[in-house]
Amino acid sequence: MLECIVFCSGALIMILEMVGARVMAPHLGTSVIVWTSLIGVVLAFLACGAWIGGRLADKTLSRATLAKILAGAGVGCGLTALGHSLVGETVVGALPNIYLAAVAAAVCLFALPAILFGMVSPYVIRLRLADLATSGATVGRLYALSTTGSILGTFLGGFVLVSWFPSTQILLGVGGCMLLLSLTAYGKKPLLRLCLFLGFPIAAWGHASYEQWQIAHGSLPPPVETPYNCIRVMEGRSYDNRPVRLMGTDPGYMQSGMYLDNPAELYFEYTQFYALGTVLVPQATRVLMLGGGGYSVPKWLLAGYGGLDSTKLRLDVVELDPGMTDVARRYFALPEDPRLRIIHEDARRFCNANRQQYDLVFVDVFNSHYSVPFHVGTVEAARALRRAVAPGGAMLMNIISAVEGKDGELFRAIYGAMRTAFAEVHIFAVDDVDNVRQVQNLMLLALPEPSPRTRDILSGNDKHLTAQIRRMLAARVVTPVSEDTPPLTDALAPVERYAQVLLK
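User: That's the sequence. What structure does it adopt?
Assistant: C-alpha cells below.
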C-alpha cells in the first residue's frame, strides 16, 4: 500500500502543477514568466516539505501521521481550487509587476499543498525501512515509483485532463484522491476525512452546476479553457456606440473584436492594415493566414470586403488551438465555407512542411502578453515564410512593439530576421508614425522582389488609391531603423527579454 501511495502522490503533484498554470492564466497570462514562477515555487516548497517530512518521520512515525499528511495535501488542493480566482485578482491588483505577482500568486496558491506533497515520500520511506541491509534498494524502489507516477501524471494532466475538465474540477479531483489515499493509509477514526472526501465531489458538482447556470442565464460563457488558452468572451460598446463582442486570452488585453451589427467588418484598427496586401496584390486568389483568433480577417476576406474576387478566393488559416476555432464559430460568426480551410497546427511547423505558394501571407500570432512566439520571428522562420510567398506576392506581419529605443528591441530583432529573406521590408505604425518609441501595433510588409508598381503604390502615386489606403500609406516609417539588435535565430531568440515592456 505504501508503494501505491508514493506512486499516486507522485502523479497527483504533477497534475497539480500542470493545472496550476491554468488557474493563473486568467490573471497573469501564460507566459514563460508564469511557468517559471510556478515551477520554481512548487519545487522550493516540495524541498521544504521533504525536509520537514524527514524530520517528522524521525520523531513521530505512524500511519496515522501519514494519513494526516495526505489529508492535509488534499485539503490544500481544495483550498486552491476554491480560492484561486480571489487570490489571483487580489495579488494582481496589489502587485502591478508581473514577476512579483506571478511568484506571489504561486506561493499563495501552491505553497501549502506542495509542502504536504513533499512530506509524503520521506515519510513513506522511513515507514518502509525495516532493514539497513536493504535500505538502498527500498529507497531506490520508492523513488522510482514516485518518478514513474510523476511521468504518468504529467502526460495524464497535459494530454487528457486539461482537455476535458475545468481546472477547478481537476484540482478538486486531485484533492479528493489525496483524501482517498489518506483513508486507505489509515482506516481508523475516518469520520472527518470521510466527510471531507465526500465534500469534494459535491463541490465539483456545485461548481459545474454554477457554470451551466451562467451559460443558461446569460448570452456569454464563463472563461473557456482549452489546452492552449483560457478564453474570455465579453460584450460592450465601441467608441462610436456600436455593440461589439470581444475575445481575450490575457488579463486586460483583447485579442479579437467583432461588431455585432456587422460581423464581417474589421473592428481593430491594425487589422485594417491587411488591406495593404490586397491593394498591392489585387489579383490574389490564394491567401494564407497564420493565427486565427476570432477569425476577423478571414471573415472580412470571405465577405468580399478586402477588394479581392471573393468567388475565386481560397483561404487557408493555420490556428494552433482548436478551442479557439470553436469559440469563433459559436460566438464570432465564423461561417462554414468551402473557400475556407482551417489547419490546427503550429504556424512554424506548418511553414516548415508547406510546399504551396500563396499570393498573400498574413501573420498574426502571439503568445501571452502579445509576445510573438520566438520560432515565428527568426531568420529560419523568415526563410520558410519567403518560400510560402508566390512571385509578385506579399507578406504582412503584425507585431506589438516600438520601432526605436529599449522598447523596440523585439521589433528590430524580427525586422532584421525578415530582411535576411525578403528583398524589401516596410514598416507601418498603426497608432502614431511620428513617435517611433511608442509601443503600438506595427505592420511589417515584406516583398519577395521589388517592382515599379509597388513603389508607385507605396509612394502614393497611384491615382486609384482610396482615402483609407492613403491614410495607411502615410503611416509608413521612412526613417532608417537602428541595427543595434541582432536578428532572432532558432538558436538565440530572447523574445521574453525584449518584450518586458509588455509585461509591466
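Residues 31 and 368 are 5 Å apart (CA to CA).
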